Amino acid sequence: MKQEHIRNVAIIAHVDHGKTTLVDQLMKATNVFRVNQDVGERVLDSNDQERERGITILSKNISISYNGTKINVIDTPGHADFGGEVERVLNMADGALLIVDAFEGPMPQTRFVLRHALDLGLRIVVVINKIDRPGARPDEVLDEVFDLMVELEANDEQLDFPVIYASAVNGFARYEADDGNMDMLPLLDTILKEVPAPDCEPDGPVALQICTVDHSSFVGRIGVGRLYSGTLHKKESVLVIKADGTRYNTVLKQVLTFDKLGKTEVEEAHAGDIIAVVGVEDADIGDMVTSIDSPVEMDPIKIDEPTMAVVFQANDSPLVGQDGDIVGARQLNERLAAESESNVAMHIAPLEDKSGVEVAGRGILQISVLIETMRREGFEMQVGRPRVIIKTDEAGNKTEPIEEATVETPSEYAGKCIEVFGTAGGEMTDMATKGETTHLVFRIPTRGTMGLRTKLLNVSRGEANMFHRFLEYGPYRGEFAGRKNGGMISMSTDKAVAYALDTLQQRGRLFVSPGDECYEGMIVGESAKEGDMVVNVSKTKNLGNQRSSGADKAIQLTPPIKFTLEEALEYIEDDELVEVTPKNIRLRKRILDTTARKKAAKNK
After folding, report:
1. Which tens digit of pLDDT belongs to each residue from 124-171?
2. What is the pTM of this model?
3. DSSP state letters, 355-396
């Protein structure tokens, strides 16, 4: 039976193609906000980091009402590191808005999410966004989307997709790029017309599959999913079937539906709607909440395995406690244990020797988002070099994660980019030139992608864009050469002095400025040669009692390199750590004492 009063639609797109801005306009068009309410931009990007980075990190559900129909809108992440979240939430939808930039056209992440949407049989509505952008080419982009659909083996019905032309930032959607309409109603009408209503059994047994897990410090885990059949009541006794086959009975404490930007508690929820339930204490992805008398089982939801791991440890540098309030190992372990409750996409487990906690995720961005969140909460910690997770296949051979990397670069730098990939173990699989831009596709081990973005920006003068996503586990490619240049290691704990830095900058690149606190074993710069160099950053000029015949030259220091969190994690070697505090990101040696470090290197 069709539930004509409900539509469930996901919004999928590549990073920065305008998903969240489009959702803002849909909410304004359906009067979610009061007339005089100041809501700002990108309302759903409520997390500070989402706003600063300009990306969606967490999938979010909202609902809007239009012409008597409730439209559940699922805003999904656009970055490949959070791709696992996209795959899961698409299970809740019947249709998807595919947002494509009118200038850039379909990008790697577009292909990734579109493949999953087509496999699930979702009705695709193509929205060509930013048609007012200089250089926009909506007709060509439409052809590229069609070609991509054919390449992904869409069926005839899926190829007959509706198209809407939009400018989310200006708040209009159109059936034709130049028809002059200035509101969002064409898109809303298309959703009602083209996205099928949920087909379900309102009177059947309860069948709810949990697709995402929310967490509240008040009620614990909240399971979110689509109610495929039946009617679910508050305080109802239900059967929970876990992914491993275990079963138990529980009583639902709350049943919630999505209402505008929040959730509303209801006495009962009906089939076809996307709902949240409280009372399944160990709620996990793929769990079934169903009737005790006539249980329903569905295919399990597969969560992609993590491909990269980082070890978190309590900070033990000489400057510990100067920036952050939370520095103990116990608090760090408790915080990461709480994260494992709410973030099912990460595997978090203490090391056997209790020296730290290993956090495994889909990529450096996903892990760095967690580190950044914790440093803003006042934590100090030190993290090791990211390592890829190596597996062994059935024949006993080592395998490692392989990524598909796509590069868009001005044609004059294409050769240099290919060379950079060659040194990182990449194999080119495709190359196409569009005007003055060259489009390159590579297969590359995940290990090879670390630090690659910086190298590409250097050889292309900042103009190359790179995107990569996990492809598969493939044969292990052997050992890769590490960083060629050695580090400048501070020999003492003191403040950096301009006179000393002036001498050192002639021997490499500096990471610190005059007045910065340094300590023994801290990496203060990169040497121009191989091998580490122990340096004195606090050396001052010897002052005699004779006046100089000529005035001392004014010291001119080149601005130091300041690493972002991701850059620092990609830069360090196995014997180094990144010290993260609320105010600073420092690089250091794992063994701070110079003599002990030399002894350890000799024994190795």
Report:
1. 999 999 898 888 899 999 999 999 899 888 888 889 999 999 998 888
2. 0.75
3. S-EEEEESSHHHHHHHHHHHHHTTB-EEE---EE--EE-TTS
**DSSP state at residue 286:** T
Whole-number Å distance between alpha carbons of 406 and 580: 31
Q: Yes or no: say if 402 and 443 are a contact pair by the CB < 8 Å rule.
A: yes
Q: What angle do CA 496, 527, 552 make, to 5 degrees?
A: 50
Assigned token pair, 89:
């939430």
Tokens 């961005």 belong to which residue? Answer: 365
* Residue 220, H or E segment: strand 220-229
Beta bridge partners of 314: 381
Q: Nearest Cα to 254, choosing from 284, 300, 289?
A: 289
Residue type, 306: P
Query: One-letter amino acid identity for 64?
Result: I
- How far, in Å, CA of 468 to CA of 322, rounded? 38
The token duo for 46 is 């409520």
391-392/398-410 β-pairing? antiparallel
Residues 525, 557: contact at Cβ < 8 Å? no
**CA dist., res. 507 & res. 501, Å (int):** 10
The answer to whether residues 345 and 359 touch, using CB atoms and an 8 Å cutoff, is no
Q: What is the pLDDT of residues 442-494, one digit of tens each?
A: 999 988 888 788 788 888 888 888 877 778 888 888 787 777 888 999 999 99
